[in-house]
Amino acid sequence: MYKIITTTCALGLFISLNAQVTPQKLPVAAQIALPAQQKALTGFEQVMGTPVLKPQPASFYAKSWNETMMGETVYDLMSNASIQNRNLFHSDGTISAGFTFGMVQPAFAERGTGYNYYNGTAWGANPSARIESIRCGWPSIMVTGAGSEIIVSHQAAGPLVLNKRATKGSGTWTESNIPTNTGMTIWWPRVVSGGANGNSLHCISITAPIANGGTTYQGIDGALLYWRSLDQGATWDIVDAQLPGLDSTFFNRTVGDSYSIIADGDKIAIAVFSIWGDMVLFISNDNGTTWTNQIVNDFPLDLYIPDQANGSDINGDMIPDTIATADGCGAIIFDANGMVHMTFGRMRVLDANLGDGNTSYFPGTQELMYWNESMGTGNFTVIAVPEDIDGDLQLGFAGAFALYGRALCSYPSMGINNDGSIFVAYAGYREDFATATQNFRHIYVTKTMDGGNNWVQPLDVTPDPFFDYYESMFPHVAPMIDNKVRIMYMRDSEPGLAAIGDLDAYGLNAIMYIEADTNLINDLGINELSSSLVQSKLYPNPSENQVKLSLTLSQAKTVSILLTNLKGEKINFTKQVEMTEGEHEIDINTAELASGVYFIRIGIDGKNRTEKLVVKH
């Protein structure tokens, strides 16, 4: 890994950033635009080659956080962008979970939904077969008000596949198709249950794009369509509907998986996280009968086509501009008042080579963004960037990015607690853990307790030192949160994917389930710092025998320092110190601490800042 201080590229910005955190500087090599992949994968592409199984540990070390492997798969693309409903926590303490399962490369003839169930005490055995009768992928899972469990997935050609059983966790699946009159293949579904009785199904999915062998539908390459069933999928009264604002007047293309849907009774919301188009929110208050829409972000070039005249020129100077937009990965959730909260990865894009039929993106784009309905078009808050582990205001870079085509903090999902706290889980770049050429990503969690005005410092929830050198991706937090945050994600030993982007050798990937007490995340405190604290830094970090806490104050203050473990328990180091203006250093002995993760809370003026400390012996 090396670090170089440099200035970032000039941006043609149209997003108004109300930033709470600041992106770190990257080496020049990390600022180069790369060609964007125009083709979303369906999972039916056959990749030739000899599989190389990446080893997974046979057992997991004891942790303060409860983590369990609940599945395995060699097929490693869980989504092209946004994450489907994959992890449902039920009020009786059980959990339904699903993922794309496939073990036999290169054809993955047995591919389909890997399903597992937590009965309140333990997970079932790792899935060894799909639930569908035919080869499928991209499962979206839900439970209706009547208690039926439903999984919708897509097949290689034709309509979407629906599997249903009367009771969650047990029983025989009955298979059917969701009807379509388009005459086209339908891919990458999202389905939720809603309505006053919870028995309505709401489905969105897109027609096969040109890049995947399809054709345009109603003037759109990959048309996003809507279906509704009022009787748990027995019949469908709305089929192939184009919502107002989703027709060819406003869109000419939809990318697979760049959308999300949620339901709360009769209130339904759909978000479209377009990369080269407007980002739009659609809302229905009558269970999907009528819809309104709101532009979340107005992309400056309407109906953009790659290589159009002057490329991505937005200021009329005949020179293609770099544009800030969404990266295609996003999530939405309702609060108790029915307001939609949204998070998405940010991306910088460019179309400067006007003869290649392609566009470019900047893989070093860092930010995870937040928005809600009260904020208006184009106004966002930055809620996460990669951690500056060593506090040098630069981002470590091993030489190449894993080619996910998304921001360094992205693939978010959202959950909400009864007290109104909103949690966001996402995959975040680590500057301190890398192979010889690529940095790893871990799963992080942040939260807001005041409706999105302030966010806690994100916490790496995959912090076990034994597993720092694993790639953790595709998190899905259970939308219903009580006293625990529950997340499933995919882990393997190599950054990037085999199915797309890097085209790594196929290997065995673990589907992980992790849960943590919400009060652990509460202990991090709101990121609301005393104006007297200019800078805080821990070094060396990781530490073996001793760590130095460096504090720089703009004026004399009383400073309290508290050391805790992962459970929030106080360790035998607490101080209250009168400090003058300027820089101070405090030595903390870590020789007697067990290897693991700890937190140092710095208190000034009744406000806290928390630094994470890793101890390794």
List keywords for this structure.
mainly beta; five-stranded mixed sheet; 43% strand; 1% helix; 617 residues
Q: Write down the overall mean pLDDT.
A: 86
How much of the residues is beta strand, in percent? Answer: 35-45%
Shape: globular
Strand tally: 38
Low-pLDDT residue spans:
1-19, 46-64, 523-528
Structural class: mainly beta
Radius of gyration, whole Å = 24 Å
What does this structure look like?
With 617 residues, this protein is mainly beta. The chain has one helix at residues 518-522, and strands at 16-17, 34-35, 66-73, 87-89, 95-101, 112-118, 136-143, 149-155, 160-165, 174-178, 186-194, 200-207, 224-229, 238-241, 259-264, 267-273, 279-284, 292-297, 323-334, 340-350, 360-361, 368-372, 379-384, 409-417, 422-434, 439-448, 459-460, 471-477, 480-481, 484-492, 509-517, 533-539, 546-553, 557-565, 570-579, 582-589, 596-604, 607-615. Strand 15 and strand 16 form a beta hairpin.
Summarize the structure.
With 617 residues, the protein is mainly β. The protein contains 1 helix and 38 strands.
Task: Give the secondary structure arrangement, pairings included.
Elements: E1 16-17, E2 34-35, E3 66-73, E4 87-89, E5 95-101, E6 112-118, E7 136-143, E8 149-155, E9 160-165, E10 174-178, E11 186-194, E12 200-207, E13 224-229, E14 238-241, E15 259-264, E16 267-273, E17 279-284, E18 292-297, E19 323-334, E20 340-350, E21 360-361, E22 368-372, E23 379-384, E24 409-417, E25 422-434, E26 439-448, E27 459-460, E28 471-477, E29 480-481, E30 484-492, E31 509-517, H1 518-522, E32 533-539, E33 546-553, E34 557-565, E35 570-579, E36 582-589, E37 596-604, E38 607-615
Parallel strand pairs: 1-23, 24-29
Antiparallel strand pairs: 2-21, 3-31, 4-5, 5-6, 7-8, 8-9, 9-10, 11-12, 12-13, 13-14, 15-16, 16-17, 17-18, 19-20, 20-21, 20-22, 22-23, 24-25, 25-26, 26-27, 28-30, 30-31, 32-33, 33-36, 34-35, 34-37, 37-38
